[in-house]
Amino acid sequence: MPICRVHPLPYHADPRVRFARVRAAPGACLLDGGQPAAERGRYDLFSAWPERHLQAQAGEDGRQYLARCRAALAELGRAEAPDDCELPFTGGLLGYLGYDFGRRLERLPQHAAADLALPDADFGVYAWALVSDHQRQTSQLVFHPSLAEQRRQELIELFTGANPAAAPGPFRLQHPFRPDLSAAQYRQAIEKIQAYIRAGDCYQVNFAQRFQAPWQGDPWRAYLALRDACPTPFAGYLRLDQGALLSLSPERFIRVSRGQVETRPIKGTRPRGQNSEQDRALAEELLDSRKDRAENLMIVDLLRNDLGRSCRTGSVRVPELFALESYPNVHHLVSAVTGELAPGLDTFDLLAGSFPGGSITGAPKIRAMQIIDELEPTRRSIYCGSLLYIDSRGEMDSSICIRTLLMQDGQASCWGGGGIVMDSEWQAEYQESLTKVKVLLETLETSLD
Question: Can you tell me where the transmembrane regions are (predicted)?
Answer without folding.
Answer: none
